[in-house]
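Hi C.,

You asked whether I'd gotten around to modeling the 172-residue construct. I have! Everything is below, sequence then structure, no commentary in between.
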Amino acid sequence: MMSQYQRLVESEKAIAGDPYWSKPKGVDLRMTLVASLMLEGRVLQGLELVGRTHLDPREADVSFSLIYLPTDSRRDAVQLARIDWRPKTPHGNDHPRTPAELLGDIEGSHHHSFPLNWSSSAGKPLRNLPIAEEIIPDYQSVEELLDGVGKLFRISGAGSSLPRPWPKDLFS
């Protein structure tokens, strides 16, 4: 039997509305994007794509998470999958359930997939999605990352619906 979470991950989705990146906040100048998602042509309350990055450095340290909020409380949020693109620090795959071939550090971009982090005993993904796999080949631009978000999270048109976190450089 397919869990409600598995159904959310495996179903085709689309971006609802026109998501945008927040203005930089805090001493680290972090920016956030929250996009509601549609399933079968309807906005599903609580199903979100959440992006996070910083104003600087550009073209690095970006994450996108597929999240489900079964209640109105952010505390109850269930992270279903995540992509970390060009993170500042390596990801350590040291969770006891990590498959042997994935043990060790991942230096670059990686994907915390739903199947790798599913806990059948808990009936939901492991907290904080501790197991990841390297993204090979890595995305070479923000545009490739946004297309990758669409492919890995099954969000049609994500590459064209999601805005870049930073304006294009005048000289690139």
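If it helps when you're writing up: The chain has four helices and twelve strands.

Thanks,
B.
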